[in-house]
Amino acid sequence: MSAANTARLPTQPELRVLKPSRTPVSKLLGKTEHLLVVVPEKPSASVWKQLPDGTRLRGLAGKRLAANVLVRSRLANASGAGITLGKLPGTGNGKKEVGAFDRLSFSGRLAADVCGDNPSSVAILVAGFSPATEGAILESLILALAAHRFRMPTYKSEPTKQKRLNTVRILKDETGIDVRRILAEANATNLVRWLTSQPPNCLDAKTYLALLRSLAKDKGWKLSFLTEAKLSKAGAGAFLAVSQGNAMRDAGIVHIRYRPKKSVVRPKIALVGKGIIFDTGGNNLKPFKGMLDMHQDMAGSAVAVATLAALTDLQAPFAIDCWLAITENRVSANAYKPRDIVTASNGVSIEVIHTDAEGRMALADTLALAAKEKPKAIVDFATLTGSCIAALTERYSGALTNRPDLNELLIDTGRRCGERVWPFPMDHDFDEELRSEVADVMQCAPVGGGDHIQAARFLDRFVPDSSAWVHIDLSSASRKGGLAQVPGEVTGFGARFAISLVLDNHERLVRTAKG
Ligand SMILES: [Zn+2]
Question: What is the pLDDT of residue 461?
Fold first, then answer.
């Protein structure tokens, strides 16, 4: 590996968002290179009157916008700025609210059009909606523009055309949207996309740790790294079963602490992430297509750490731990094998069945170690099972919890932020398929379906009942054609969901009754 190809943190400056000012709109428009306008599906005559160039836009929209497609034109002033006009489908004339996912998808299409013009600045005008809807649309547009302008990792020898967009000017905002929060969410999504897209020889375990250390320094976190030697002392046989097949001895579990005040010791929340930096499947080797994108198998760890970064930027008023299980899953003479028996750090013995079910092995010890700090709630993220994708496609991610009372909150949180999750059952009788003749539990069932449920039932053995626990099986971490406002295959899914869950609902999260 050449040093030049070592993964780094993104260096692109944050999108600058300017709030409405007293300067007349006509003057502001002279300073912008592009105008982005959103109106309802059937705007009233008064809406067009609020818009610069409204009469001409109305004429263009009437001709070209029959099927809610967007209009592209130029302002008839001296600047000749580009215009992107979109009609939000399903709005106006008393129609019910458009959901967050549809609003973000719509905003993504507009952002693609704006970025196609490659302006350095864009002014946004949303007209004809209630103040609350207007605020929600502004939020979606900023998230979409931040996602589309983001420069993903590239290793081309010739420099690629740079996206110039650096400034968004909001022309009107009656609700007073929380720009700091929106940008923290947008940055978190982009950090997940950035980390998850890194080539596997550029982001290896050593580089990932170095990168996390530099992020920790930047955010004021305390970071400790549990090496294989330390994990061996802690009896973490499940994690080590996976990492023992690696060529390098650089795997381990990262423990990051965020404390709003020095006096706080115990974490209220623990975020846990699966960080398999490359998954070959091990001795049960994956075929070509199944292995091709397995550098993305660390997406869960990226979601956990990006969520912590956003919560730190937003100065979350409670203590949070973050635990990342970082290792490869390789084929080698030392690699673990089916029917091996290993014991995890909480004393549970496991009969290995399939070496490609390594995520739950690495997570088992990571969850057990996280639980030792007695957090009130644990939320983990993992690209864990193919069966979750089979059940939900890549549009939703799976949610499984030891607190069934939380299921409605989980659905609702996903709907509101546009990163949708769907719950699965966690009944005890699913354990029958994991019953082992020789150990406490089988790693997975040798035959039969519902692996995403059994994986969660397996992981449940490493989380004590005293902590509320939510497990997110990230079936939407990657999707051809992107998802909602995010272009490109790696969606960054999970961070915005987690920020909403942890920041807006932490009291409910930690107070829910045991199942
Ligand atoms: Zn695997």
Answer: 98
